Predict the structure of Radical SAM core domain-containing protein.
Amino acid sequence: MLIDTYGRVATDLRVSLTDRCNLRCTYCMPEEGLQWLAKPDLLTDDEIVRLIGIAVTELGVTEVRFTGGEPLLRPGLVGIVERCAALDPRPRMSLTTNGIGLERTAQALRDAGLDRVNVSLDTLRPEVFQTMTRRKRHGDVLRGLDAARTAGLTPVKVNAVLMPGLNDDEAPDLLAWAVENGYELRFIEQMPLDAQHGWKRDGMITAGDILASLRTRFTLTPRARRSAAPRPPSAGWSTAARPGSASSPRSPARSAAPATAPG
Ligand code: SF4
């Protein structure tokens, strides 16, 4: 088992499959000049499957989350998922993605054994998307989300970061859209990962800000949680209009919600 110095047992394993990405989100990467890892420095598909196998069979890992960079850029992704699905015990598997290319691969990933996806989408406005990601790919993300739902990669979770002056007015619109499409929306605080060194704690959109904005249009009901479970880093809320739901960071002091890794 994986137990930290506080006695907490870790059962989730995040596996970064590539450092590359086809977006350049302003809060994550510089526009140009990135040095990607050389291929010999990356684990091979065989090595990744072997490590996950050890984690699952010997260390008590039950949940594997594939991430990046953008994991859909990893050529062997479907094969890795398929081989991990054949492990005994079989781990639950999810993918954290920007959604570009999901339209093409969602069904193959589902058939290979992927259970669900988290898709990053911060805005419903294509021009704001282009400003935030430096790419014109908004339509690709929406189509990827649609394909994930059709393929049964559910619950489809959407991760959104609100940035001051860019999309901080969009929380209610994002939730209305998520409710309409049956997606589970998660607001994630911006992390100090930014290559441009623009992160400031007092410039963050906080959990309180998000909840106040959502409550202008929605009634939010805290979700019950299992009392024995450790306190999670985020709080879950249901809206009156199910099946949509939202989660927000639990407190402004935290920089992490369950799916904080970008991508
Ligand atoms: S936040 Fe995600 S999608 Fe955006 S550049 Fe970083 S890895 Fe890519």
User: Anything to note?
Assistant: The first strand starts at residue 2 and ends at 3. DSSP finds seven helices and eleven strands in the chain. Residues 45-58 form the longest helix (14 residues). Residues 2-20+39-249 form a domain with the TIM Barrel fold (CATH 3.20.20.70).
